[in-house]
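Researcher: We plan to redesign the surface later, but first we want a full-length starting point. Tokens attached.
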């Protein structure tokens, strides 16, 4: 889905790693949320609260889920899931556009 309708958008950006990763939160009528963001090339580690589905809309990165997982390449048009309460590391090799869905 490339257009989200009937949503609320939080005006303030989520800014991480000195502005190298930014996103905006959108909330749907049923209370579910997603973030739409941009990642500059670099390496970034996050820890999830809830399980997440990361859709890479454009760009390219490598991801490692957990501290000992294998690195996996992910390109625009691909996605990966991260379990709740898990650290994952992304190495963006190009400017990367993403959509993060918080799973229930």
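Model: Full-length starting sequence:
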């Amino acid at each position: 889905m490339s257009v989200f309708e009937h949503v609320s958008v939080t005006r303030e950006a989520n800014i991480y790693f000195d502005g190298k990763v930014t996103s905006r939160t959108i909330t749907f009528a049923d209370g579910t949320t997603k973030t739409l963001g941009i990642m500059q090339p670099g390496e970034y580690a996050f820890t999830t609260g809830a399980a997440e589905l990361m859709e890479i809309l454009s760009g390219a990165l490598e991801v490692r889920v957990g501290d000992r997982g294998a690195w996996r390449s992910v390109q625009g048009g691909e996605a990966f899931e991260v379990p709740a309460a898990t650290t994952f590391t992304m190495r963006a090799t190009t400017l990367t556009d993403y959509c993060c869905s918080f799973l229930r």
